[in-house]
Amino acid sequence: MENRNFLEYFIIVLKGMAMGIAELVPGVSGGTIAFVTGIYEEFISSINKVNINTLKILQKQGFNSFWSALNGNFLVALLLGMLISIVSLSSLIKWLFEFHTIGIWSFFFGLVLASILFVGKQIKKWTPLAIVLLVASALFAYFITTLPPSANSESLPYLFISGAIAICAMILPGISGAFILVLLGSYEAVLEAVHERDFKIIFTVALGCIVGLLSFAKLLKWMFNNHKNTTLVILTGFITGSLNKIWPWKETIGYLTFGDEKKPIEKSILPFAFDGDAQLGVAIGAAILGFSVIFMLEKIASKE
Fold first, then answer.
1. Average pLDDT in the chain
2. What is the pLDDT of residue 139?
3. Would the pTM count as exceeding 0.85?
4. Residues 237 and 191: beta-carbon distance below 8 Å
5. Backbone angles phi, psi at 185, to 5 degrees
6. Nearest to 243 by CA among 182, 176, 193, 299
7. Which of 44, 57, 207, 280 is buried most, with the most CB atoms less than 10 Å from its CB?
């Protein structure tokens, strides 16, 4: 475990808050923020330390050795930041999407676009296979963004499974955990549970997240250790393909009916074809702001 001072852990809390904000947006991955802020590989490595061997250290060498092996301070600081954002900002994010739709989507579009450049420039070697993998992963992510949403479900076993699947997307840059919850029909139930402090649903989803996180993190760690360049290519493709989901201008082409509930089916369109005020000035300004945020985060990460 790295020796850090209070200020460094406070910065990790802020990075966790940024990840939490990203996860509240259906289309932006907290993993992308972790990658840009320079904590992604430590995050994955720390998750993988939650295992039987680490528990044996607790039994044989005591709590301090166990906590050090777990990188516990880092994990607690990061998860605390995420929790602060999710609990305190869920209502604000909901309000922004309801009343400032184009502006908030444009902000995140600029943010993700800058993330593509940041992750892509770390690819050390371009081969024909790398290009094929880039295109294939981008198309796969794009396909996911075109899938229609599912009916909202508050079944606890279903929410457990939803949490396990969504958390895999959360730690994978480019694919949004929140968007996976939308596709599975669990997003509204989870957001409402957080807003209403329904701890039964929150605990169920959290338990599913823990199971999914511990399983998927092992694969990611192996990929980074053995095929880092290929992994970066695939992640760049995922982030690129996800841009379709956060394109600010959409039109409704139909509805899916689930009982008394209707969910719109949308497709991306050019701003000039948008029915209403396209708010181009607001969109461009918000996109530039989002783009700039990534480079500020990168600068902070590089200084550390």
1. 84
2. 94
3. no
4. no
5. 80, 20
6. 176
7. 44
Largest CA distance in the chain: 67
Phi-psi region of 268 (alpha: psi -120 to 50; beta: other; left: phi over 0): beta
pLDDT category of residue 81 using cuts at 50, 70 and 90: very high
Can you tell me the distance from the alpha carbon of 217 to that of 168, in angstroms, rounded to the nearest whole number?
8
- The Cα-based distances of 84 to 95, 113, 173, 256 in angstroms read 18, 26, 21, 34
CB 132, CB 174: distance < 8 Å: no
Identify whether the C-beta of residue 176 lies closer than 8 Å to the C-beta of residue 245: yes
Nearest Cα to Cα of residue 247 among 110, 49, 99, 45: 110
User: What interhelical angle do 128-146 and 177-184 show, nearest 10?
Assistant: 50
Which pair of tokens denotes residue 36?
A: 């840009």
d(C-alpha 5, C-alpha 298), whole Å: 20
Identify the three-state secondary structure at position 91: helix
Rounded to 5 degrees, φ, ψ at 263 are -115, 130
